[in-house]
Amino acid sequence: MGSFTDAVAVVTGGGSGIGQTTAVEFADRGASVVVADVDVEGGAETVEQIRDDGGDAEFVETDVTDVDATAAMVDVAVDTYGRLDYAFNNAGIGGPSAAVSDHDPDEWQQVVDVNLVGVFNCMKHEIDQMKAQDSGGVVVNNSSILGHVGFTNSSGYVASKHGLLGLTKTAALENGETGVRVNAVCPGFIETPLLEEAGLTTDPDAREKIEKLHPMNRLGTPQEVADAVCWLCDDEASFVTGEALGVDGGYLAR
Ligand code: NAP
Hints:
The protein has one domain (8-192, 221-241): Rossmann fold. Helix content is 45%, strand content 15%. The mean pLDDT is 97. It starts with 7 loop residues before the first strand and ends in a 7-residue tail after the last strand. The protein is α/β, with parallel strands linked by helices. The longest helix has 28 residues, at 105-132. The chain has a seven-stranded parallel sheet with strand order 3-2-1-4-5-6-7, sandwiched between helices. The chain has helices spanning 17-28, 40-52, 67-81, 105-132, 155-174, 193-197, 204-212, 222-233; strands at 8-12, 32-37, 57-61, 86-89, 137-142, 180-187, 244-247. α5 (155-174) links the parallel β5 (137-142) and β6 (180-187). NADP nicotinamide-adenine-dinucleotide phosphate is lined by residues 12-13, 15-19, 37-39, 42, 62-65, 90-93, 114, 118, 142, 144, 187, 189-190, 192-195.
């Protein structure tokens, strides 16, 4: 396991699920962490957990759909800790379950605004800061298995996660020589509040059906995604950029 001592990380959606676990993992490895979220209570909980464990963290209320708010988020990292080494752009929403022909356009747009435009808003300022540093940095975007394949009644989510992979690859190409690496993780179904709210983990029949979609016949854990994100940030992945790393129990191997 690589050490992130003296490094600074930003995690969006850091107040819950995958983001919360990854923020704690960054801190466990020695990084100072800026936890960004619209969920003030969840964000405060993450910061408290990190500080209780002896780590260093700050919360900044951030709606990633607001490009000024994502600029302020990066400013908090630089003003508080002097730099930004790692950014995990993870904030996302599932959106309503509806077929394309039935979908409310405003609700569809909202999913794309958070999951795709929100990541652009973050990357814009994160990469700008990383390029200005001698040591560069690493961006990891949270896409999904649904960045590669379709899923019924989830067109806004699927479209945003596909778009996120294009955004990741393009930023990786643009930064091949700047010292900034840009990658994505593509988790399978992970046991978090997002799945619980969609009723996918609480209803035993729905859960079994979802588990069976993965050759490993189970859901993933937030920790398994956090470990993959930290590997992508580590120097062990120093020649990895533009990659969409599956963390999916074999889902995409079918
Ligand atoms: P989660 O537990 O719901 O956490 C997402 C966090 O993002 C929440 O704290 C949420 O706040 C916050 N958020 C929502 N909109 C935001 C905005 N506009 N600005 C800033 N923060 C915002 O979900 P999760 O399952 O950990 O998902 C995290 C990421 O992983 C998402 O991008 C998701 O698409 C991706 N992912 C999840 C799975 C899975 O199976 N769980 C699989 C593949 C990919 P509120 O709760 O207040 O909305």
